[in-house]
Design a protein that fits this description.
The protein has one domain: Phosphatase 2c, domain 1. The protein is 27% helix and 32% strand. It has 6 helices and 16 strands. Strand 7 and strand 8 form a beta hairpin. The radius of gyration is 18 Å and the shape is globular. The protein starts with a strand and ends with a helix. GO terms for molecular function: protein serine/threonine phosphatase activity. This is Protein phosphatase. InterPro entries: PP2C, PPM-type-like_dom_sf, PPM-type_phosphatase-like_dom.
């Protein structure tokens, strides 16, 4: 599968620093103080699998940006050390993210930054599969000729559920870190739903807090390429006065062919490691 992708992260107009981090082209972009940072690339996942991901840190001051950066560093290690990651069973993914969760909580205890945590959304483009994973309220969408569809389910609830009616603020029910050992991770295999020309949108809530799904669809539909789509989405979020950092990755499927090689399996000796 050949994909084109573009990612952008912006501090925005209302935050003193950027707590979002972005993992694109094997590099982590974190802690951008001013303006925006963008990264782009083309990859044949049949030869070289790829993870693209965003993390939205929380905890105040520098805690959020540390949590989001550390989480993506661990994700980058997963991408390098476990091959092919796409064949790892769901329980294996759960165990890996549980380990990351524990390490973030331990770092918080050691540094006194209690409560630091982060959301995470990402996509793995492998040799045979395309997987989407998430924790928290950062989202993934699938845009095709049939329209736009939200892939992920937010791990959050609004305060209206709790009886409030003055705010639409959401409360995260699952994240990496945050001082809790209870981690909910969702994993979606979207391989069979993809076609050439389709686009995948990964984004933090700085975008979706101010841009509704119909407008997301319109921007993705009208953009001539992934760079234009990302730029327009980030610009629109700022025009609509988002009060959060905004991070966006758009991936377009240019060629759909996947590897027909036999799936990788653990040998008996490897299972014991």
């Amino acid at each position: 599968m050949i994909i084109h992708y573009f990612g952008i992260t912006e501090k925005g107009n209302f935050r003193s620093h950027n707590e979002d981090s972005m993992y694109v082209s094997g590099e982590i972009v974190a802690g951008t103080v001013s303006g925006s940072f963008a990264s782009t690339g083309i990859r044949d996942s049949s030869n070289s699998p790829l993870i693209l991901a965003l993390a939205d840190g929380m905890g105040g001051h520098t805690s959020g940006e540390i949590a989001s950066r550390l989480t993506l560093e661990k994700l980058a290690w997963m991408e390098r050390a476990i091959q092919p990651l796409e064949e790892l069973p769901r329980a294996g993914w759960q165990n890996l993210f549980r380990k990351i969760n524990n390490e973030i909580n331990e770092h918080a205890l050691q540094t006194g930054k209690l409560g630091m945590g982060t959301t995470l959304v990402g996509a793995l483009f492998g040799r045979r599969k395309v997987l989407v994973f998430n924790m928290g309220d950062s989202r993934a969408y699938h845009f095709s000729s049939k329209g736009i569809q939200k892939i992920t389910v937010d791990h959050s609830f609004s305060d209206s559920v709790r009886g409030g009616n003055q705010s639409s603020r959401s409360y995260i029910t699952s994240c990496i870190g945050g001082g809790t050992a209870d981690l909910q991770m969702d994993l979606f295999d979207i391989t069979n739903s993809l076609n050439e020309g389709d686009r995948i949108l990964l984004c933090t809530d700085g975008l979706t807090d101010v841009i509704k799904i119909d407008d997301l669809e319109e921007i993705l539909k009208n953009a001539s390429n992934v760079k234009e789509a990302c730029s327009h989405l980030a610009e629109e979020a700022n025009l609509r006065m988002t009060r959060d950092n905004t991070s966006v990755i758009v991936i377009e499927v240019k060629e759909m062919a996947l590897s027909q090689a036999e799936p990788w399996k653990l040998t008996p000796s490897e299972r014991k490691r």
